[in-house]
Amino acid sequence: MSVISDLKEMQKLVDVKYRQQQESFARLLIQEDSLRKSLLRVDEHLADSRCNADADQKEIGADILWQAWLGRKKKELNMHLAKVLATKEQHIEQVRKAYGKVRITNALLSDESKKAKQKREKIQLDRTLDSAAAQHFKGAFRPC
Questions:
Q1: What's the average model confidence in pLDDT over 18-25?
Q2: Distance (Å, whole) CA 107 – CA 101
Q3: pTM of the model
Q4: What is the mean pLDDT of residues 19-48?
Q5: 139 has pLDDT over 80
Q6: Could you tell me the fold of the domain covering 3-136?
Q7: Domain map (residue ranges) of the chain
Q8: pLDDT tier at 94 (50, 70, 90 boundaries)?
Q9: Are the C-beta atoms of residues 21 and 74 closer than 8 Å to each other?
Q10: Is 142 left (phi over 0), alpha (psi -120 to 50) or beta?
């Protein structure tokens, strides 16, 4: 195989790996967004329960139980979010590395393609010059 065909094959592979990394990262972003929205809803419920607990709920302690449940839920969501953020941080580095490989492979392929084109052009120029020289000198060395 030629260097260019090897680089094209490598380019396909690193592109696939990069797309996989991007998709994985996008799923993490969706998960993070969902957790943040859930945390906002819990905060809204907490604020609402503190302001709007009716007398019957306070009398039987339901408001305190509800707030305690919301507090546990918020803690659970925050812990899950922390794990997602830690995973996201690792994925950012993986996506950067994958993108770097894409850029390097593209640059190598571009350089090799330019070199191959220059080589073809030089060969063509040499052939043209040889042909022109042969025609020019064809009549110059006629025997007397």
A1: 96
A2: 10
A3: 0.70
A4: 96
A5: no
A6: Helix Hairpins (1.10.287)
A7: 3-136
A8: very high
A9: no
A10: beta
